[in-house]
């Protein structure tokens, strides 16, 4: 039987505008097995997992578990865990790291402040510091969530680690199983699908140079999905690859009479230019499995850029 990722690839399903949304990511190292809902079905105390979910709700913070690529022997709780927090909104992007002996310390964080891009709470509670290492390449490998993530994600994570990518981690859930292998790159928060090791290395090299690679990109987690599609469309149309120069400054629903949802998205450049991008939501046909665990076929939503107005404003002299 074909997997959801195979069907999606064979149907050439677009991936733009499909990234998970989060202004801030909070990542906690948790080795060992993960269940489908990893925060409450791993060796992490499920009471703590539920408390973290509750604390993050409606704050813009997304909590996920990470582990180093490789075999995951059941060795019990680690003595010292790695923790990362990353804010992804352009102009305020940061990635801080810390370690903790007690993951319950994460409940001392001000999640609302983290979602707004304030790292002081992370630094105070966990003695966090700016991350000075390589960008993080977080590959979704949670086979209990969807088998494609294990079948395709784990080999990618292992290949990256074996080839010397020091920022490679496995992560519990990034959404969009049918685009496996999927990954998130921090600090900027762009997600990628159908990833291959050589392409991931180019993405990471770009981040180190302050560039965003558009090929294979699902979008930036900083924006809702219409904004993700609009920003990528502007990058593709203009060739702009510099990180943090484009922002989604407005997304307005367009009224239609019984038609598909539409939005007018304003994408702004730091040099003063603005683009008005019209994005329409449609449904993929024919129906297909949205994940390998789905009991029925579905018609997943897609974001189509249907119009883009010429930039408004004048570019600043360089």
From TrEMBL:
Alphabetical list of Gene3D superfamilies matching this protein: Glutaredoxin
InterPro entries membership: Aim32/Apd1-like, Aim32/Apd1-like_bac, Thioredoxin-like_sf
Any Pfam family: Suc_Fer-like
Name of protein: Sucrase ferredoxin
Organism expressing this protein natively: Streptomyces sp. 900129855
